Amino acid sequence: MGDRTKMERRLALAADRVARYERMVEIRAFEDRVQGLFAEGVVHGTTHTAQGQEAVAVGIAAVARPTDTVTCTYRGHGMGLALGMTPESILGEIMGREMGCIGGIAGSMHLVDKELGLLPTFAIIGAGIPVAAGAALTAQVKGTDDAAIGVFGDGASNIGAFHEGLNLAAIWKLPVVFVCENNQYGEYSRINLTTPIEDLADRAVSYGIPGIMVDGQDPDATVKAVSEALDRARSGEGPTLLEMKTYRYAGHSRADKAEYRPEGEFERWFQRDPINTFRARLESEGLLAEGQADEVDRQVAARIEAAMETVKASPPAGVDAMFRNIYAPV
Amino acid sequence: MGDRTKMERRLALAADRVARYERMVEIRAFEDRVQGLFAEGVVHGTTHTAQGQEAVAVGIAAVARPTDTVTCTYRGHGMGLALGMTPESILGEIMGREMGCIGGIAGSMHLVDKELGLLPTFAIIGAGIPVAAGAALTAQVKGTDDAAIGVFGDGASNIGAFHEGLNLAAIWKLPVVFVCENNQYGEYSRINLTTPIEDLADRAVSYGIPGIMVDGQDPDATVKAVSEALDRARSGEGPTLLEMKTYRYAGHSRADKAEYRPEGEFERWFQRDPINTFRARLESEGLLAEGQADEVDRQVAARIEAAMETVKASPPAGVDAMFRNIYAPV
Amino acid sequence: MARMRMNQAVAAALGDEMRQDPTVVVFGEDVAAAGGPFKTSDGLLEEFGPLRVRDTPISEMGFLGMAVGAAASGLRPVAEIMFIEFLGVALDQVVTEAAKFHFLSNGVFTCPMVVRASVGAGLGFGCQHSQTFENWLNNAPGLKMAVASGPQSAYGLMRSAIRDPNPVVVLEPRALYGGRGPVTRGEEGIIPLGEIARVREGDDVTIVTAGAMLRVAMAAAKSSDNWSAEVIDLQTLIPWDRDAVVSAVRRTGRLVIVEESPYTSGWGTEISAYVGSRLFGELKAPVLRVTCPDVPVPFGRELELRYMPNKEYVTDQIDQLMATGRVPEPWWVGEGSRV
Amino acid sequence: MARMRMNQAVAAALGDEMRQDPTVVVFGEDVAAAGGPFKTSDGLLEEFGPLRVRDTPISEMGFLGMAVGAAASGLRPVAEIMFIEFLGVALDQVVTEAAKFHFLSNGVFTCPMVVRASVGAGLGFGCQHSQTFENWLNNAPGLKMAVASGPQSAYGLMRSAIRDPNPVVVLEPRALYGGRGPVTRGEEGIIPLGEIARVREGDDVTIVTAGAMLRVAMAAAKSSDNWSAEVIDLQTLIPWDRDAVVSAVRRTGRLVIVEESPYTSGWGTEISAYVGSRLFGELKAPVLRVTCPDVPVPFGRELELRYMPNKEYVTDQIDQLMATGRVPEPWWVGEGSRV
Ligand SMILES: Cc1ncc(C[n+]2csc(CCOP(=O)(O)OP(=O)(O)O)c2C)c(N)n1
Ligand SMILES: Cc1ncc(C[n+]2csc(CCOP(=O)(O)OP(=O)(O)O)c2C)c(N)n1
Ligand SMILES: [Mg+2]
Ligand SMILES: [Mg+2]
Predict the structure, then answer these.
(1) With an 8 Å Cβ cutoff, is D327 touching chain C?
(2) What's C244's domain CATH number?
(3) What are the helix and strand counts (H, E) for chain C?
């Protein structure tokens, strides 16, 4: 892995399934480490981690172009890493350091990287959905074949912005892919308590667009689904709703121990852990050699630890940062 | 007809199809007269009339109880009359008179009658939809078997409040019926320009509730559909979405001549005019005797003219009305 | 210099910018085929085509969100909110997303979007279609807000708003759409954001106003023999030109704000509080806010006219201020309402 | 008189009202099974059951609309908006529907609903989860708005809010939820809406504050030897008790507002403008607003503490006011930001 640039990190995923595996391992390790940080109480505020959902982020990043636009939520570290952001720039933001992607002034819920196509992530449920459609509008008006990807949760599919965003994108046939990460929970509520249907992909009916259920635990499946939906988008056929069935291993945020989960649920999902399953597949296909996976684990851990040290040693955001970038100069 | 009280007017519709016919004629005549008023320029502001949609309003009023709650839009005169409001109380409001249902302080878009179950009508698209669900919540919590009916347009089915209101009602199995008056237009835009699907009833799929298409030009059909949906609601089976296919004869509001309509469209719909069709049916069934319909027309016209005279002769809202009812006394 | 109605001036500004800048797009409910419910985009669809001029479904949250995304990725969207009240279903995108977009991108993204909204009373639309609601927007650093007071200002402010790299809300008093006036088009017609217009010179009192109240304030100022009033059209409400207003008031010694909004916490409240404190000890009279009462906007021509400040009322209030050196009671105190 | 945390006091108020009045229902996101994201409804589901205590889908517009309908038809709903920002997706129901409901029903319907919302900075939630946004609500006649400053006031105001026949928004500063204090329950613990609390006596200056800033203002008032400050907890922001504030300030001759909000058009602006004009010529010093700067709320403990007024800053500002009789520059002028 070493110290590749973020664009190298991004492009690595395109063709290389082993790189996708590595990135999933990185996300898992990063999120575990971040959770630890908060548990230690060294970081202010809150955080929302994405262990268990790695295959969704990697599936998107592997097929989207850097010139495509991605909107994402406060649960964004995994997506950021997948898209190519460095651990330092995310960790820096989480820890309020100048080297953070927003100068350390915004915290864990807000990540951004223009070169990688990531708009500032959204802490308001549903807000990023019509925004993704807006980026797709740009592509349509300018006549590029770029597309947009709007990522949001199962809970977000109940809010008005979801309905309005999908409807607008459908009627204008905008080049956008809506990815619903159905991780089974919105905060502390299981999806069935707040949502009267089983498969959120069915909501595509309301907009006359394809609604496709995807195994969100399988990076080959997520890559395929996103790739097909992006092709549809780029060729002018309009939006697609992808429901990625996945699972949130951690609690909703920093303090949540997820004690509301039915017994055995986590264990059942963990049997289909995206990392373990993918490793086994790559090993059986001969793409990962004996022992290579362990080596990846070690390298990743070292890389995260190094990032942690770098960030810890770096200066915090200064008071002056508060006054920067309020208005863009005319 | 004569001078029946509003409650008599309401109850008249329950069993008597001829009364429903008369009320439809009344609504048509009332709306035509109101349009004339605005064309003459004697009234301030704007108005939205409902010629062509009479069978929807009458269908609801015929089967809902006065203890049920109805939420409705700015296009509310027909619904108000159907529910039993007197022409005077509506005309008084339209013309800014003290005798108007809100004391003449609110104008054509806002009607109300608590005894008849009509909440203040909503001038913001979609706003009444979750409000209807809220009235249904009251019935559910109090354990009555009352229900609520939320009426809104085709255009409103694109706004977030629609999505959120139906979703909430569905997950809590609230006793509410959602009636979408699909009159083919939202303002000056034909529904196909803003809505990517043909049948709005299909949107029920998103909430796991029945979505039923109804011939909104046939009062027997609307009565039947609302009646079945109310039964469902009252027996605890939850909400229903009824899409009433109908047609707005007039323009969107006061000034609109509806020149954007495709040629022949009005004429095609007018062939299935709800009043004409229903009259023919009642005549063929022997419920309306020869010449009786014409007599109804005359009586209704006279009744509306009398109301007009009464209202014109009545005092306008005074300045003091501006300061009343801002806060309810503690 | 052509004479045109204010709605035509808006359409002219949109057209002129669209001609120069192919990234400007216009959308909203019935703005394309119908040319706008108030004809503020008449002719744009015909000239610029359906890719750049679009009718949206009724979904303000959706299409303002779309404006944010479009602005961030290279367009300059102008979205119409038909009546300012409808922003109540979409405020999040303006105040919590757009206003913070540049900040949240570490200064890398900009969000050059314009939200046009018609505002105000006077046309008999009743209490859910007649408000101004500047207060929804005036506590959101990152956002700009301007308000048109006639054809030229509608034209000039709109062009600046479209060029501005920040999200700008432009309020257009609905009652002014039909009013005609001369309009200078092109670069000379552009009015920079953040600057006042001194519309009238005067020595005894500075009237600060905006939007539809400009003509009321002007009428009052012209009609009085008792005092001579300078009249300032604030034009940009956020950020407002504090220095210009303070120095104007320092000269006359008196500040009167004429505003179409309920009394409590209208936009003029900030002007009053700021100037009152800054010029403490230098003023000859207390700052006076001439506003609407704290009630929902009534329907009915007479009541609506009564609701809004009018020439006679403004004149009378200033007469009293000059005579007594105290803030006079507003008219509605006699009607049983508190200030 | 039990000691409890403010979040417990909120739950106690809800429970006490629910016990007395079977029409009170509580709903919001995760308020039932989880007892509320901030544990402000802990135990209610267990005691009152799932008919009256409900978890909603994420749909603020939907469930506030539902509150309007429920209130109009015979319930007294209390709906939780987890962070005030989320009202940005639902403001319509509060400001355009609920606030005008009684008016639009000719006085026949009432709309006795309560919207609880947590507000403010201090917990590191970043710029989309730390604002106060009172300004969204302060120009909507028909609505009331109160803000809690600790356990007792959270308890007492909430009970009044639930009993009030009008829509009431109750703001709860999130940073105070964990703070403990004595709480008188029952009828004596109830605090009427529309009244101030004079929390401290003093002669030189009247500090008007609310919510989380009460403790800051108190700390400053207690620590100063240079001046003696009366401290008023405004408690109800709409309608605010003008007479009480005016007569208090008349006595001390100086008004300082301490407020957690950006400077421009925070709630204190109205207090400043109103009192400044009413007491023109009677004040010994200009009205001073001690607020946050006009920036998005920053993340990071140090920066957040810097962002909000703190004891030292309030003290220093008042020291300067007393010494110079002028409004001092706020701290951020030195940082390159305008006031
Ligand atoms: C409009 C709005 N309402 C409520 C919240 C609080 N909130 C933050 S995360 C969350 C749950 C979201 O669930 P889901 O969409 O499934 O995403 P996940 O957290 O599972 O990734 C809620 C309710 C919010 N941020 N915005
Ligand atoms: C939130 C909101 N957006 C826009 C409007 C303006 N508006 C009033 S009526 C209307 C069309 C509504 O169409 P539909 O729902 O089909 O009802 P119809 O008028 O046909 O009865 C629009 C866009 C509004 N009142 N509220
Ligand atoms: Mg989820
Ligand atoms: Mg319609």
Answers:
(1) yes
(2) 3.40.50.920
(3) 11, 14
